[in-house]
Write a structure and sequence with these properties.
Elements lengths: L1 E3 L2 E4 L11 E6 L10 E5 L10 E6 L3 E6 L1 E2 L3 E2 L2 E6 L10 E5 L12 E5 L2 E5 L12 E4 L8 E4 L9 E5 L10 E2 L5 E2 L5 E2 L1
Antiparallel strand pairs: 1-2, 2-3, 3-4, 5-6, 6-9, 7-8, 9-10, 11-12, 12-13, 14-15, 15-18, 16-17
């Protein structure tokens, strides 16, 4: 399992005999024995490939399930993400990528580690031999554009100074003012 915020998440595993998609979470702010402290969902009812994981890693906003093995089909690369701000039992709170679509060797991992904004999937076995391929996912939020301009009115010609207030720590800017003029400055002015 893995802890994130007030919750402990229990991950559906492949135990060498069978695999399933039942996952649960416990709210640590409530009594351990109270039924209302627990939620569960069968992930394999949302997608038949969402089962047989090997642990998880968590950052500030998500829990990442580590792809491992499904009985009868072998190792898989279905990396699953639950967005912790959304309802645990809602299918829309979950998304995935089949890592083998990026590289056929990205499957059968033996763990996951969160380090800053990155999630690392630890290499394991593909069921026959050791696989030495590590997968890294950049979990940092995408920048969200936001800005203000001042002044917002005045006499022509009016020079407006734009102030960037974007989220997600952008590192470059591409302003287009609609008259053919552009700027790469973080806080440009335009007349």
């Amino acid at each position: 399992g893995v802890a994130s915020g007030d919750f402990i998440y229990y991950i559906p595993i492949y135990n060498g005999v069978s695999s399933h998609g039942l996952t649960a979470r416990y709210d640590t702010t409530k009594s351990f024995t109270a039924a209302g402290s627990w939620e569960y969902v069968n992930l394999s009812t949302m997608n038949t490939g969402w089962r047989g994981f090997y642990g998880a890693a968590a950052n500030d906003g998500s829990v990442f399930y580590v792809p491992y093995q499904i009985i009868g089909t072998g190792v898989h690369g279905n990396a699953l993400r639950y967005q912790t701000s959304l309802a645990f039992t809602d299918a829309g709170s979950w998304d995935f990528i089949n890592l083998t679509s990026l590289d056929a060797r990205l499957n059968g991992f033996k763990g996951g580690v969160a380090a800053g904004d990155a999630i690392y999937y630890v290499p394991g076995t593909n069921g026959v031999t050791f696989v030495g391929v590590t997968a890294r996912y950049d979990a940092s939020p995408a920048p969200g554009a936001s800005f203000t301009g001042s002044p917002t009115s005045g006499t022509v010609p009016l020079t407006v100074t734009f102030t960037d207030s974007s989220s997600g720590s952008p590192t470059s800017w591409n302003w287009s003012f609609g008259d053919g003029n552009v700027s790469a400055a973080q806080n440009p002015s335009h007349t």
